[in-house]
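Customer ticket, subject: "Can you confirm the structure for ABC transporter ATP-binding protein?"

Message body: Hello, I'm evaluating your service for our small team and ran a test protein. I'd like someone to confirm that this is what the system normally returns, since I don't have a reference to compare against.
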Amino acid sequence: MIVVEDLHKHFGGFHAVDGASLSFDEGAITGLIGPNGAGKTTLFNVIAGVHKPTSGRVTMGGEDITGLPPHDLFHKGVLRTFQIAHEFHSMSCRENLMMVPGGQSGERLWNTWFGRRRIADEERALRAKADEVLEFLTIEHLAEQKAGQISGGQKKLLELGRTMMVDARIVFLDEVGAGVNRTLLNVIGDAILRLNEERGYTFVVIEHDMDFIARLCDPVICMAEGRVLATGTLDQIKANEQVVEAYLGTGLKNRDAVSA
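Agent reply: Thanks for trying us out. I re-ran your input and got the following:
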């Protein structure tokens, strides 16, 4: 679905992504792991249009999408979430979801004068869609709650809900488990699996929680120092000497520590 070829992203003399080549298959939940500073988030940012690459190429379904801005990628169904949720904190959870779809009639001044019925019809449809999403994510009880007042895990669920308000083709989840308690992380995992199995969503997941990766992801890609070290099942990744070296700086003698 998405193919990354010899991608580089430099910040001055620092090579955050240094010749990465990899692919994300349609319909898969791909895990992206690696030590801190491996270039994982920078890779996401380049693919999602937040940063332009220094060099290299990104294609989706054979179409060159290298360097396209986020709003263009959004309309192509490429969405991402962030390590720190970016909610509209003074708006309700329902309103946060209703804000997502673009091209709403109420955004045009002319329609606020002469298209009020159309605006009202759209708002009713968006409200119904938002309530359906909240129910799917089992947070319908938070519909009227201000988004800035809910927990960190609930904000991660709300961010996932935003991707459900449009026709997402591939969703990049950046440390969805960061700061989330185990119960809510299981709820998030359940939602991701259901979206994948029932609605055909493709996901790429950056996460340090190996239990979460093991439950959701196949294949798994490991990065270090801006490069791809290995691709395979999680068991294959754990058995890879380069991966063990990248995480621990030691050899085979400490492989069991990674597997634990």
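A couple of notes from the result: The chain has two domains: 2-77+167-259, 86-157. Residues 86-157 form one domain. Feel free to reply with more questions.
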